[in-house]
From TrEMBL:
NCBIfam families named among the record's database cross-references: PRK09059.1 (NF006558), pyrC_multi (TIGR00857)
The entry's keywords: Pyrimidine biosynthesis
Domain of life: Bacteria
Biological process according to GO: purine nucleobase catabolic process; pyrimidine nucleotide biosynthetic process
Gene3D superfamilies with a match to the protein in the record: Metal-dependent hydrolases, Urease, subunit C, domain 1
Name of the gene this protein is made from: pyrC
Domain Dihydroorotase catalytic, first and last residues per copy: 55-241
The protein's name: Dihydroorotase
Biological source species: Agaricicola taiwanensis
Amino acid sequence: MTAPKLFANARLIDPLTGRDEQGGLLVHHGLIADLGPSVKADAAPDDTEIIDCQGRVLGPGLVDMRAFVGEPGAEHRETIATATQAAAAGGVTTLVCMPDTNPAIDDPAIVDFLLRRARDTGVVRILPAAALTRGLAGTEMTEVGLLKEAGAAAFTDGARSIRNAGIFRRILTYARDFDALVMHHTEDPDLVGSGVMNAGELSSRLGLPGRHTAAETIMLERDMRLVELTGCRYHAASVTCRASLDVIRRAKEMGLPVSCGATINHLSFNEGDIGDYRTFFKLSPPLRSEDDRQALVAAVAEGLIDVVVSDHNPQDVDQKRQPFAEAADGAIGVETMLIAGLRLVHAEMLSLAGLFAAMSARPSRRLGLAGGKLAKGAPADLVELDLGAPWVLDPAQLKSRSKNTPFDGARLQGRVTRTMVGGSIVHEASSA
């Protein structure tokens, strides 16, 4: 039995209730026992460990709904141990790992393996997302019921879209019967073709084949029709353009059980950041125009975009040190997701509570988790944050095994000082 811990002199942020006040928070038996202005160090029991937050923010731990953790089969890029250490350093207390591993997460035994590995080597909560189709091939659906029983939190084919509408309709129907959440990557592979960046004037000037936003919106429109037909809970993994937001808005107005996410990279950068063929900015889906980026940020503030994800996709040096068209897609992001989001808060484009809602409260609710809030009886999954701390990002200091970050050398303001999972501190910055 561990002694109670009291976070004193904190700025408490709860996106569910709108709480934003100075006070304390008491943790006991892995749960939040009490919180508010009346919770102070001088009234705590004798055996309580006092943590003076010195006015720093204390909010619910983040839930990242889209991350690649490497195991099994790609441990040279990332492991559960390194991914969860990076998550803890970024204030992420729950990580949903993608199924595009080797072998793919398409069997209950692999789900069980991941959960055991996470228990043995991870420092934050790991929730496996199982494959929709066997081997991620898009042709034969997996056993959704057995996978969910084994512990799969959601179902997706990762960065692959299911092009066959008939197969996807059967998947949605089957998933509905098990109340399973389907998370789909919405890009028509036939329209994507060989495109490597956003289609437009810039791609023409750079001499790179483009990927048009229509590849996203056409697939998304199709999916909304199938959701209307089946009633399955559906989540668009990553929307990237203004036109997709119109599709999502219409679907929600119709009352369909849909939600959507956006990556922190698409909220932070636009196609111009590719500059002189910088491969750390080669993503899937690609970075879009500045107009699209601003539309995404406004949609997060409005709540139309439900969640913000890291889309953490570690790649080794050999895969990124290539000509732009040949380099692998993806960037790491679980450690920088919250801090990058603070840029939008400092620019007054998004409130701090809105940021926590998109990174903690709403993903928790979509996944059916008990966290994502500061409330009595809720899990003590917490992040302490120094909003004003300035620093320059050095990739060598990041905890991820790979270092392919688009924030290389970026000047940032704000730093995670402590992270707690289930009442245990799993990350503590040296300056905390």
